[in-house]
Amino acid sequence: MRYSPVARLAGKLSVCLALLGGSVVSASAETVLSRDQFSDQMGDRQSSFLARDLMTGTVCRLEGSDLETRHAPWSTFKIPNTLIALETGAAAGIDHWRDWDPAQRPALQYWPEAWRQGQTLKTAFQRSAVWYFQDIALDIGSPSYRTVLEDWRYGNAVVPDGSDAFWLGGPLKLSVDEQVGFLTRMVQGELGVQNAHLADLMDAAHAGPLGSATLYGKTGSGPVRSGQFSGKFEGWYVGWLTRGDDVSVVFAHHVTGPYFDAIRTYRRDFAETLLTACGLTGAQQ
Fold this sequence. Notes:
- The chain is an alpha+beta fold.
- It is built from 9 helices and 10 strands.
- The strands form 2 sheets. It has an 8-stranded mixed sheet with strand order 1-2-4-3-10-9-8-7, with helices on both faces. The protein has a two-stranded antiparallel ribbon with strand order 5-6.
- 47% of the residues are buried.
């Protein structure tokens, strides 16, 4: 078996073979989860979900998922952005410190207290502190982003000149299928990124156990209509699972809901439900 750089450095990975219950409809290379069985948890939210088992080549999706429509990545862009910051030297390491300058980045009403202070790259990732990555974006520059994102095939790779917020509502966009494709290339070591930087990302993205697997991921969200924070929201939870000696699964969950609180914890919670229902976590269903 060929081990990816992430696997060699993080030592968290394993083959994941799914035992599929009666509620799962199976095809030779695809499993489809019936949407009806999750109606109570979904409520009035819309979810699209795709997971890929890297060991078997099979995929698992939620019935009726829209895998092709592109959406703004919101804070899930912190996954590639962390790697780009490390690769370009905009951050010297995962513990690279930046002071918060309230004159340059005044706190907005919705900012949590955890954003209103200096951050390392790791804490900015974990707390989703937008201002840190906006500062990073200005240091890296739009031409460098366009070159890297085109090379990595990250969505439409659109980055306007001088923008420090191109991932927040657009114009940068990608689909559920493209999220999964990017994560697949990343964990399989196809981006040309230094092993140490992949290990740093693993450290920042660590989200704890899920069944007998270990979960890594990042949320993201924002208003469907720009600036309308009391209206409809969209969000993501994307990431990967490790079991034993290898990354076994990558996944992406995109959701829309009537307001932010309707998706705040649901983004991750329902992704975990679906990963378990797919038989990808080693947990009992």
